[in-house]
Amino acid sequence: MRRLATLLLMMVPFAGAFAGDGEYVRLPGGTFRTALKYEDSKNGVRIAPFELMRLPVTNAQFLAFVQANPQWRRDRVASVFADGHYLEGWPQPTQLTGEVQARQPVTQVSWFAAQAYCEAQQARLPTWSEWEFAAAADETRRDAREDPAWRERILSWYSRPSSKALPRAGLQTPNAYGVQDLHGLVWEWTDDFSSLLVSGDNRNQGDADKSRFCGAGALSMEDTENFAVLMRVAMLSSLEANGTTRNLGFRCARDLP
Amino acid sequence: MKRLLRCLIGSLALAAGLSALAAPANPLPSDSVYQLDVPMVDQSGRSLNWRDQRGRPRVVSMFYSSCPYICPLIVDSGKAIEHALTPAERARLGITLVSLDPKRDTPRALAALAARRQLDPVRWTLLRPAERDVRAIAGVLSIRYRALADGEFNHTSVLILLDADGRVLARTEQIGTRLEPGFVAAVRRAVAASAKPKPRAPASGS
Is the ipTM beyond the 0.90 threshold? Predict the structure, then answer.
């Protein structure tokens, strides 16, 4: 009965799902040259084949999750898991403004909330390496990172004001793997966001602050031309796990069955 | 006199009732790190929940037992805090180290470290979480870490002071035998606050 009620609730405001929602795309993995300069990844990182959501998670999808898991409502969530701006853009704790918002990617979600969402789908957040691997592709090439025109295009997105309303998910052409919106829409959580040890902590490399990290923790960029990656890393490394921002969303990944 | 007695008995019963109510139902603060519900095993092999750490103030950090340089300093810090306290203060403090490396930090490995460093099991809890929960524990503690290809970890070296309910009271990144005086003072205050006698019925003069 309660399940039926939940189901009904999900259906009332908007048809819960749109075409392509929650769909996964298979990625081959392989040895990948990351733009991050880690001492232990000089020969590239190994990425096992995995699946990634074709689109970032939308407000409608996240609403269904919140309705089924009320401990993740913004008026009930523990502050240790989500800051005061969690899901602030929704008019009510379990209501969206309308169909336009329903189809936009969900933002103002914390890492804990994103992780709980993926876990509820028997999935997980992608690792940074998986995300970077998928995002290296453009529409035709699996690794377009050397192309100045591609870089230029991504940069022009970063220079757009973030106060403008978000477009809906799935409008951009899929990349070579069939994944959409990795660039040009929102920034995305990764499972290991807190492994990117380049925050304020490491900016002053080489001084006494170094002992903050066990071992040679200092991370710098292999590819300083790759601003798209650099900005993502800087952003993710500045966040706490309960933090939220107006342009940070997520998508889930899973291991191959 | 009889009335006083009745009153006393009544208030005692009330106090007992209240504390019985308060013990299990006392809700966790919203910002408590014990909101996280994850199973663990301690250095004696006992299964427990992260939330079971609630009840007394604690100094908490994350480490791994095979760590060659920084982690021994984290243990040193805990010991230095012990030394800075009076025996009565010490008895009310817990020190908890959570492993970043559950693969290698079995209860046996943690017990070996505890024995080698002579960590009093009354006060020291070394915890092995499930591998999938490490990132979340680090998340509530604002600890960043990265597993390296050679099995080592880069990680934030920090001591975090929690009150009995798991709220973060203070942090220090000055680890080793020389402690930040402000942090030690905060530990003292936390321990004193936890020792405050619960309100009791006034002692009768009769």
Answer: no
